[in-house]
Amino acid sequence: MSLHDGASSNRPMSQDERNCNDEIHGSIQIPPAVHAILDTAPVQRLGSLHQLGCAFYAYPCCTHTRKEHSLGVMKLSYNLAKKVLKNQTKLGVTKLDVLCISIAGLCHDLGHGPYSHAYEAFLTVVRKRENDHSELYKERNKRFKQTYGIEIPPLPEKYAHEKTSLMMVDFSLAILGLEIDWDNLDNPLKQVNDGLDAERFGLVQDDSEEVIPFTSRDWVFIKECIYGKPLEFPDAPVNQTTFVGRNKKKEFLYQIVNNKLNGWDTDRSDYFERDSSAAKKEGANFSILSREVRVARGVCPVPLYCFECKEKIEPGVHLMLCHPHKLIGNAMNFFNQRIKNHEEIYTHKKTLTAELLLIDLLVETDREYDMLLSTQIDDADGLPIHPKYDNFPYHKLPISRAWMYPRLFVRLDDSVLGIIENKVVETGPRSFPTLRPLLKRFRGHDFYKCVGEVELETIGGAAMWALSEDEIKRDIMNEDVFYDGEDGLLHLNGDDFIIEKRELHCGSKENNPVSQMRFYSKSDNQKLKNCAEDLPMAMEVDQASLPMNTLKFFIKRSIRMYSRSSEKNEFMSLVFENWRSHKEQRLLAPPGCSLKTFIQDGDDDGHDSQPTLLTQEDEIVTPVVKRAKRKLSV
To answer: How many angstroms separate the CA atoms of 479 and 483, rounded?
Structure first.
């Protein structure tokens, strides 16, 4: 059932303001309009998504949810926008602007799937597998076409959870009986069904019970704040080339929740602190950056990516969120926290070994026809949805396509494993032979194991990093190593292991992210009270002003090997070391050398001989690889 115009009995928005307690930010005020959105199914679903995916297997205290994080972002966004309204009155920020920013903070993560970023990694694997091994999906696709007379929709090249967040914002409005009207942007939201009265849904005036209703332009603004750039079809009638929700003089408001210019925003401010507090019980409070922020003018730090500047010869000047020069060190600490969290929490070995097993489990589920999920397109009792889905043709979809339809996606959360397991159990002990062992391993915490890692900060690292994961895997398979195990010879198969290229950075790849921020001097304080045209220029930090704790390198790269086969863990660890050793020797060998390698299986005394790598000019000795043997032609 979609939304339809017609007679309706609409209720006014409750004007009661509520509070909730948060472990990080204390008491959080929830205005009436925010509470109306908070009660919708898409926002409540966030309470069933772990913020850190599988990290709680490494850190048992990391059980906080996307809902807690989103409420935190909402509060930080409200505080920051309110501070600009109070301290820089000539910029024209209104209380309605502040409310819209708060809702954007609450709704910015609505597009995350089960186990958060693990779902995005799963979609990447599925797309690659469907392209490279289409035969694995032949039976599923054939049955789907026979049943529904239509092909399964293809996956896009890249999934962006922010785009799905926009879909879910429309879903929340639809549940409230409302819709954005692009033909009447400055009128109240379009009333399309029973629900909240559009004329009485918005900002409650402090000194009266009068409500300033949201307009359609306000909700375009909210969606733009989430997306961080102009909206594209189908979230707009056509792709937009500039912001529609607010004019150029308020462009700094778009940097509060999702800052595309320098990466300092309320989203990162909350999860840097919340995640480190949950995992390590360490304080990572950067509230001083929010307290001291001001709006000033600054030269665009990312002209190649900025939608306004990328067509210009010279970078443009923006109204930017800027900080006093004295907080350069605090800004550096902020971005240092990013790489620290990624290294210690998000890419912790146990976090990823659990995540990789989960991805394998979801990939196997996705290719089973009997695991398709209902979209509820013909369910009269289904939640109302936006009319643009009226002709949606799919009655069922695989998990990898659940994000394409709001009624299905709203039911997909971290309980997905229980749904899969119940279907497997109900169909009998001989069903789903590939899924059962994976479910058993996951339930038993028999996760994969990281058996090798090489840091790429040494000579030859760049050449190794240039290899794709598939190329590295082929390289390792070409080592043609076997292992004399207790139960006989073990051979390495391609499905036995996973290669991961791990990249950690402070937010700007190889560059210092603080160089993308803009800082004003103490002498500018009075000028910060001016109107937008007369604000002072904030400047890029010079290298001499960087604090002592500035990192020498802003990016860390490594290659990891994970074992799927527990009985081959030791074997694969030796294989990886063997590959790493040979790879480094080849990269460091003199140019033009003809490289030949040989190995004898064993000497007369029963000991393995030492593998050697020979060149035309000199002999390069590799480490002894205990019990691993390599068949090579000379």
So the answer is: 12
Enumerate the β-bridge partners of residue 498.
562
Q: Are 172 and 40 in contact (CB under 8 A)?
A: yes
21 forms bridges with which residues in the sheet? 27
Q: CA 147, 152, 154: angle at the middle one, nearest 5?
A: 175
The token pair that represents 350 in the structure block: 């146990």
Structure tokens at 393: 């043709």
**Residue 534 CA neighbour count, 13 Å, CB half:** 8
Peptide bond into 611 cis (omega under 30): no
Number of H helices, E strands in the chain: 18, 20
pTM, two decimals, is 0.90
Residue type (1 letter), 82: K
CB 235 within 8 A of CB 225: no
CA 447 remoteness from chain centre: 23
pLDDT-derived band at 591, boundaries 50, 70, 90: low
> What is the chain's mean pLDDT, rounded?
88
Residue by residue, DSSP assigns 373-407 as EE--TT-TTSPPB-GGGTT---SEE-GGGGGGSHH
Of 13, 41, 16, nearest in space to 385 by CA: 41
Smallest Cα–Cα separation from 397: which of 147, 592, 177? 147
Instruction: For residue 455, list its beta bridge partners.
Output: 558
Q: How far from the centroid of its chain's Cα atoms is residue 570's Cα?
A: 33
Q: pLDDT above 70 covers what percent of the chain?
A: 88
* Cβ partners under 8 Å of residue 101, min gap 6: 77, 78, 80, 81, 225, 253, 256, 257
Mean pLDDT value across residues 72-76:
97
C-beta of residue 565 within 8 angstroms of C-beta of residue 593: no
What confidence tier does 464 reach under pLDDT thresholds 50, 70, 90?
A: confident
Q: Give yes or no for a contact between 97 and 103, defined as CB atoms under 8 angstroms apart.
A: no
Q: Torsion angle, CA of 329/85/316/537, rounded to 10 degrees?
A: -60
Task: Give every CB contact of residue 95 below 8 A, 6+ residues apart in sequence.
Answer: 85, 203
- Check pLDDT > 90 for residue 488: no
Whole-angstrom distance, CA of residue 188 vs CA of residue 13: 14
The pLDDT value recorded for residue 6 is 45
Contacts of 552 (CB under 8 A, 6+ apart): none
396 touches 376 (CB < 8 A): no
**Tokens 């009226």 — which residue?**
390
Spatial CB neighbours of 109, under 8 Å, sequence gap ≥ 6: 46, 66, 69, 70, 73, 161, 165
Q: Beta strands of 519-572 (E only): which ranges?
A: 519-520, 555-563
CA distance 349 to 359: 15
Q: Which residue has the tokens 């003089």?
A: 249
Residue 545's pLDDT is what?
A: 66
Neighbours of 365 (CB within 10 A): 26
Query: Within its chain, how far is the Cα of 13 from the centroid?
Result: 33
- Contact at 8 Å (CB) between 144 and 152? yes
pLDDT for 590: 61
pLDDT of residue 458: 59
Q: With contact defined as beta carbons under 8 Å apart, do 408 and 375 qualify? A: yes
